[in-house]
Amino acid sequence: MSTDTVSSTDAEARARAAGVPVIDFDPECDPRFKDDPLGTILAGQQVGDIFYSTAARGFWVITRHELFREISQATDRYSNRETFTFYRDPPDVFQMPANLDPPDHTKVRRLLMPLLSPAAVKRLESRARASVARIADEVAERGSCDFMADVALRIPAEVFLEHMGLPLSRADEIIATRLLPGKLNASNDPGGVQLKAAVAAVRAMFEEVLAERRRQPADDIPTYLLSQELDGRPLTDQEILQLCHTLLGTSLGTTASTMAFLFKRLAEDPALRHSATSTPEMVGGLVDEALRNFPAIPLLARTVRADVDFHGIPWKEGDRLLLLLAAANADQDAFPSPEQFDPQRTPNRHVAFGLGPHRCAGAHLAGMELRVLVEEWHRRIPDYHLGDLSDLTHEVSVAVRMTTLPLVIDSPAPSFS
Ligand code: HEM
User: Fold this and answer.
1) 315: alpha, beta or left, given left = phi > 0 and alpha = psi -120 to 50?
2) What pairing do the DSSP bridges indicate for beta strands 320-324 and 59-62?
3) Which residue has the least CA distance to atom 41 on ligand 1?
4) β-pair partners for 407
5) CA–CA separation, 57 vs 398, rounded Å?
6) Signal sequence: where (predicted)?
7) Residue 61 CA to chain centroid, in angstroms?
């Protein structure tokens, strides 16, 4: 059915009748978003556990960890067809498996998972280590960097290229789908012209490697997908290309964003940096706390599949939901003193990767890249501070990202200088 079957005024009337707060909550368009995206989203916590926003097409907003869990797990009741598009515009891209519902979702997800299993990720770890080591050495030599462009986007791009069976020399083409000269995405690219060209170039790259792997199989994503079946028939080229785009689209900006948020925090806090980067156990806790505090995907959309009573509120088929993932991660019932950044927080049941059947398929990969970055970087560059942040702002597509993060290196580790 059309997502517009339920009018926002009808939903608003139901909200008022149920005693649910109704406000114009529109973080994406809030002028404060560019400076403080997560704070703008977290403001929703003050409104209530559930409220209705009249912004855009109208949507119910959910702020609590427990409710986030309930909705994320009930894929029979809440559709993912609009997830990753945010609340403002209806989707113009369809991602497999992110926008699929069961049973199709289950089939595609099962097909993808061997590529992202712990064993598959282990095989990519040496690539990640070598990339971080080389990049950190270059930065140490130079004495400064734009961490976002020079490090955070480059590491997941290089790991992705290795996984795709493509040479690292193509990293700039991959990164161009995220980084436009000077700034990220829409702000300096009217009509998205440069972005479209970058995406077309990457598509050509994928077509090239697919044709090559048909002739000569290797141990990589295209070779694996060429061997897979869906509903008893081989995947079409179109499906394979779409899955390659999904793997790129979901892995690059999200991981880079988390890396940048974490390194900004570490650059600001030498005591934390020294205590939390020293042992592998500490690094694991640091990465989890970074994911909790700075969830790169802070909002998730769902659509109600059939009329349902949700804790006394009558939701109707087609109602839109906005799950404030960032607020679930800052829910004091789930995380004592949620405002504190505590790498030793135990347990840390953050939902930065989502929950339930759509939980991030790349969680192991992202976790490995973050861990390896912290370990290898700090062996080489223990001390650094923030540079001039006057150009720093935040943008949102699926992930919330910094446009730039200037870092100045204080001194490389003696053995690496
Ligand atoms: C720190 C980095 C990352 C974060 C914070 C993140 C976050 C998320 C979240 C919140 C979802 C759930 C969407 C929903 O419930 O609708 C998701 C889904 C997904 N992620 Fe990630 N992600 C990250 C890295 C990655 C990486 C490295 C990959 C590797 C390819 C990846 C692949 C996917 C895929 C394929 C889905 C769709 C899963 C499904 O619908 O079944 N992600 N991610």
Assistant:
1) beta
2) parallel
3) 358
4) 145, 386
5) 18
6) none
7) 20
Longest dimension (CA), the chain: 68
Which pair of structure tokens corresponds to residue 286? 């640091």
Please choose from 73, 110, 250, 297 the residue to mutate so as to test ligand 1's pocket, defined by most ligand atoms within 8 A of CB: 250
Q: How far apart are CA 92 and CA 87, in angstroms?
A: 13
Please count the other Cβ atoms lying within 10 Å of the Cβ belonging to residue 337. Answer: 9
Backbone φ and ψ for 144, nearest 5 degrees, come out as -165, 165
Cα(416) to ligand 1 centroid in Å equals 35
Tokens 């960032």 correspond to what residue?
326
Q: Which ligand 1 atom minimizes the distance to the CA of 354?
A: 10
**In the structure, what pLDDT confidence band is assigned to residue 45 with cuts at 50, 70 and 90?**
very high
Ligand 1 lining (C-beta closer than 6 Å): 80, 83, 97-98, 109, 116, 246-247, 250-251, 254-255, 258, 295-297, 300, 352-354, 358, 360-362, 365-366
Residues in the chain: 417
* 269: amino acid identity, one letter: D
**Which of ligand 1's atoms lies nearest the C-alpha of 252?**
27
Cα gap 398→28, rounded to integer Å: 11
Mutation test of ligand 1: which of 258, 360, 402 has the most ligand atoms closer than 8 Å to its C-beta?
A: 360
Atom of ligand 1 nearest to the CA of 365: 27
How many whole angstroms from 361 Cα to the centroid of ligand 1? 6
3-state secondary structure of 352: coil
Q: Tokens standing for 290? A: 């970074």
- Backbone phi and psi for residue 63, each to the nearest 5 degrees, phi listed first: -115, -15
Q: How crowded is residue 316: how many other Cβ atoms within 10 Å of its Cβ?
A: 14
**Cα dihedral angle (392, 393, 394, 395), rounded to 10 degrees?**
-110
What is 8-416's CATH superfamily? Cytochrome P450 (1.10.630.10)
- Tens of pLDDT along 186-234? 556 777 788 889 889 999 999 999 999 999 999 999 999 999 999 999 9
